[in-house]
Structure formats: C-alpha cells, structure tokens
Amino acid sequence: MLPAGTHRERHAFLVEQGLSSNHARAVLWWAKHGAALVDGGGELIDRQYAGKESLRPIYERLAEFIGTLGEDVEAGPRGTYVSFDRPKQFALVRPSTKTRVDVGLRLPGVAATERLRDAGSFGSGNITHRVALTSVEDIDAELEAWLRDAYEARG
User: Fold this and answer.
1) What is the per-residue pLDDT across 64-102, written as a single tens digit (0 to 9) for each?
2) Residue 133 phi/psi, 5° resolution?
3) Do 95 and 45 meet the contact criterion of CB atoms below 8 Å apart?
4) Within a 13 Å sphere around the CA of 121, how many CA atoms are in the beta-carbon half?
5) What backbone phi and psi angles, to 5 degrees, belong to 33?
6) How many other C-beta atoms lie within 10 A of the C-beta of residue 91?
7) CA separation for the pair 39, 46 (Å, rounded)
8) What is the pTM of this model?
9) How far is CA 153 from CA 91, 92, 141, in A?
10) How many H-runs (helices) and E-runs (strands) does the chain carry?
11) With the C-alpha atoms ordered 118, 82, 95, 33, is the resulting torsion angle positive or negative?
C-alpha cells in the first residue's frame, strides 16, 4: 500500500523500497490511472476532452479508422493522449489545444511537408511526424494513407 503524501514523497518512498526512479513513476502512474484503464480507458479519454468536447468527434473518427487497419491494433489511453500500437506504437492522438487535435505518426525516413510536420518534441519519443486537425473533415485520404503507412511499418 502506498503511503499518503505528495507525489514527490510517494516517489521517494518507493525508491527507498528499492525501485528505480522510472519504476517508481510507473507505479505512481498506475495508482492514479490504473482503474480507468481496467475499465477500458474511457474515463481517461473523457478527461482528455473535458472542456474540449467539440474535438471529441475528431478522436472518435480517428479511432474508428485506426481500428480498421488490423485486428492487432491496440488503443492505449494515457493521461494526455491515446497511443495506438501493434504492439509497437505507430500513432497517437492528443487534444493539444481547445481547437486542435494532433495526430502523431511514426514514419522514419519520410520527409516533412507543410501538413505532415516534423514531430520535434511532440509525442512519446517514437513519433517522427505530427498532423494538426481542427475538424472531422481534416481526416482525409492523405491522413488515412499516412496512418496506414505508419501501421504497416511497425508490423
């Protein structure tokens, strides 16, 4: 059982018990979000789109399309984004602002364009590119092709 206290205090306690710093952070993350994941992750997604409800249809449409890419696609809700894996991550979706959803893609070796931008520090460290979306209509054949390429490259 984790003791009461601040995040920093609880982290220090776990490290004192012999966990590495990374493992202690993972335990604390699971303590905070684990129940939501066990319930399917819907609560985490609800929190991501709280105050950004107009963006939720963009996420829903993306998740629907990504799910058609293969039976091995797994959606992994996190605190601020949803990772899509097979089992290695190939994409993520994050409501970045109140008016924009960003799609992160793992497309190594693909040149950036005006729309398919270099990811920079966006994402989880595996992501190479990002695409900004402001409406469901932005989910077009070009984006679907990039998602398919990212999926296929991780198989």
Assistant:
1) 999 999 999 998 888 899 999 998 999 999 999 999 999
2) -125, 135
3) no
4) 0
5) -115, -10
6) 29
7) 12
8) 0.75
9) 11, 15, 18
10) 5, 6
11) negative
